[in-house]
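Q: Sequence in, structure out?
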Amino acid sequence: MNRDNIKDILQSEGILPLSKYGQNFLCDEKIIQSIIDLCEINREDMVLEIGPGLGSLTFPLSLKTDHLGCVEIDKGLADHLRDTVTNATIFHQDFLKFERPENINIDVIVSNIPYYIMTDIMKKLFADYSDARKMVFMVEDDAIARIDCRPGSKQYGPLAILSSLYGGYRYEFKVPSTAFIPQPKTTSAVISFTRAATADYLTPEFVKFLNSCFSMRRKMLKKNLSGLASTDVICNALNQIGLNDSCRAEELQPGEFVRLFKVLC
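A: Exactly. Output:
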């Protein structure tokens, strides 16, 4: 889907991009194809797209698999996709409230994630869809500092830990603002994740635990976890995995959170 296609659809359908949903429609065909290639989709794969918009990725994705589901918050866009993409199931829903269909394993997840809600969407994906073998996202380039960072850094938190535990992370390429209609004010980037065995530890309960660990960054970890167990129990758990009971969450390695969770929960 190119720039002219996007403009024609917006005009013919009377669609106005909504800033509250962070709607910037990808219109560079080379970049679209590069993203599709990164997904490494097989015909039988179950593929989930979040925020399909006008279908820049949806159309080529639907040619790669017979099992494509798309979750779109905007009713007008969801209706448009239902009318134009025949080989996909379109869900009109806020993805943060979307319940995963039972007995369906998702193989590949792809999304041009709205910048304002990147962290929440990725945390939900790592919690609820950690069995997927591949995830490919377009995000704000500056926001990657929240994903690719180490313990002790200012940006280190639940998202970085979940990303590390899910598996192999790759910064693929930058995407200029000119690749979108309307043009965002920032540069974007495409990143990918490949599942590793440590993704088995990712559950909604573990994500909730991580959020508690970082609820007050300046506080010691035992304080942040005080609602989970008594101070003595928490201190004993920290000591059991070789940590000082005065440590802070930002000091722990991703694997140490897993070990602490196993002891306490």
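The first strand starts at residue 25 and ends at 26.
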